[in-house]
Amino acid sequence: MRILLMGNPNVGKSVVFSRLTGTQVITSNYPGTTVEFTKGTTRLTTGERAEVIDVPGTYSLEPTCKAEEVAVSLLDGLREGDVVVNVVDATHLERNLHLTLELLERGVPLVVALNLWDEARHEGITIDVRRLEALLGVPVVPTVALTGEGMDVLLDKVAKAKVPRARAGGPKRTADERWAEVGRITRAVQAIAHRHHSVRDALEDASMRPVTGLIVAAVVLAVSFGAIRLIGEGLITYVFDPAFERLVRPLVTALDAALRPTGFVHDILIGHPVGGQVDFVESLGLLTTGLYVPIAMVLPYVLAFYVVLSVLEDIGYLPRLAVLLDNLMHILGMHGYAVVPMILGLGCNVPAVLATRVLESRREKFIAATMVSIGVPCMAQSAVIVGLVGPHGISYIAYIYGTLFVLWLSLGLVLNSVVPGQSPPLLIEIPPYRFPYLPGLWKKIWMRVRAFLTDAVPYVLLGVLIVNVLYASGLMNVISSLLTPVVTGLLGLPPDAAVALLMGFLRKDVAVGMLGALGLTARQLAVASVVLTAYFPCAATFVVLLRELGGADMVKAAGIMIVAALGAGTALNLVLSGAVSAGLVLAAVAALVASTYLVRRREGRDASAAGQ
Q: Which residue of 102, 357, 371, 508 lies most exposed, with the fewest beta carbons within 10 A?
């Protein structure tokens, strides 16, 4: 038996899923798409085991986007004995019932979970559940997924669910007819009483207003990244570094002694000694750098990032941030929800590019994916940048991220001016602030961390292996000599830095880590870090970009990345070496942005005149 959880976005469907299922869940892409859905198992009150599928949120069974198409496809695939649980937000009954009526018209076994029942009481909303059951002709169960209230009753109703006789095979109505019936049902079952404004209401209002909202956003982001750094550094200092020193170093040291004198196998597994001993960062062996970088240097920050991100998601802050930044994102060619891929990109660019599917047009997806790949360093890379550049002073870290921000902003302005099309308005549901459901929160964090480990570690090991093979075969010297004019002439880096730039295609965090072995100055580290961030996505992101954008747009994005990276790296090299002033570079960027804007505006006037 399969149970399909269906409902509008932000109705608590995922929390219901977490309540019904255990920790063994599977997240996969629907065949032929990049839309994810989650599966797990539960046990009904009859003792029977059932598969639970968390269907992508949808407002209607007449799909308008890929996620809604997947939801309808899963519904079309119902087998005999399967049941649909329609999760409804009790605080927005009228808006949610439209989907309920569409499901009833399908004639499927249906149970309505009237979720957020406690929120409805707090807001002064009263719903006559028995009357609603009679009007719909299916069981209606009030639930509070956060606390588990009503879950046992829901499972009991699911085990007994049948096709509603009054609705099975009924005629399909128009949307207007459906909305008219929704209005009649809502008036018959719902009553709303006056309720005083609460502290939570005041905080929700403050986080949406232009002035106070920006203050709240600044505080939230500052606290978030402060927490990420505190948690990440704490895990490295007190957990991962001691674990590697006590558990891994003795084994690696013994293997290093057993494989002496150094040779091909030794260099592949252990790497090259630094100062007469094994160095986990600089030795570049599979068992040293290959394990230490992703697990001890990167994983702590990634784990901390996903903890913070999951909390912000579950309390309901991210949609408010999207609305708050909608005007800025429109200037850059996207609507406000593009902030979600940008924030995800600070953790890992792969889920960030996948998240661009929340954007409606191909134009928006292209702009957002390109901007994420160029101007948003992942947490893995940021962790290594802070570790390498931090000892040279906070000013150089500021140069790196300041340059990336200017590049990100100017790139968005230029792309918005030259890429044809318009950005649609932002249509998004704003959920109330809620306390996160902790078991579901930890499950989400674990799934994200597990996905990072399965993606990161193999690529790091592959990258280290390829670099060592290239060194052993002498090909690395040939490649470095070909890139020397660009690397040394424009960027002011030593020829050996070409190796790190090439390595960036496999894993950018490892590539930045390789810079530490080259004895670079603070200026060179800053320039190389900016170029590595912007010039090309890592292999995993490249594959996802190719799948999301297609071959032609991927080639365009790659060209933009190379030009942007070389331009930003050259400009930063000139500024830090004192050859030109930062003001002159900013003026040149402003002139470029202004010229592209004027060209786009002139083309718009010409098109308008031609239409008239």
A: 357
